[in-house]
Amino acid sequence: MNSLSKPLSISAVDAAKRLLGSYLIRSLEGVEVVCRIVETEAYDQTDPASHSYRGMTPRTAVMFGPAGYSYVYFTYGMYYCLNVVVGPENQAAAVLIRAVEPLSGVELIKTNRPKIVDNYMLANGPGKLCLALAVDKQLSGHDLTKEPLRLELKQPVASEDIVTTERIGISKATELKWRFYIKDNPYISRYKR
DNA sequence: ACTGCGATGTCCT
DNA sequence: GGACATCGCAGTT
Description:
By secondary structure, the protein is mainly beta. The protein has 3 helices and 8 strands. It is globular.
């Protein structure tokens, strides 16, 4: 349990919307990289697309614990993706952080994304975000109230500023509209410009 | 602008 | 052994 556990003991869908606009703060080399969460997806135990759907395994155990911890998984042989564990203890639910808007520490992020010139391309996807913030499996199960990766809840984004769509990159439960992003924010994935 | 595909590790069947 | 909560590049239109 930590101070995030209680406010995040809500459904994955509610938490996914709640986390929009909140800050993700990564400490790297003594520098605080501050990012605003702009795109999320909900996953829970009843959902065939979730890693927790088939029950607890060593990899997914953290999702069955209290809210306010990270779940990081490795995918496609190359990339990591960062989730925030939400929901009550013993109910596996998580929010995939799909995109963030860097607010400070952009120069440090660019050392992790050496070929990227435009700021909006640094972390506009779940794999890119983990590259940008140097998040890997070592940070899975991490207490998000503590260094070097913290989540700070901010004022929720107004519901009229949240866009709801189908999730990206899954083959099961594709009909569920469990992806959420901040309207008109250019730092989301697949933004039309 | 759009489509296809290669890279590549870990987990679960 | 197959699927995978991805990305970036190459080729075509």
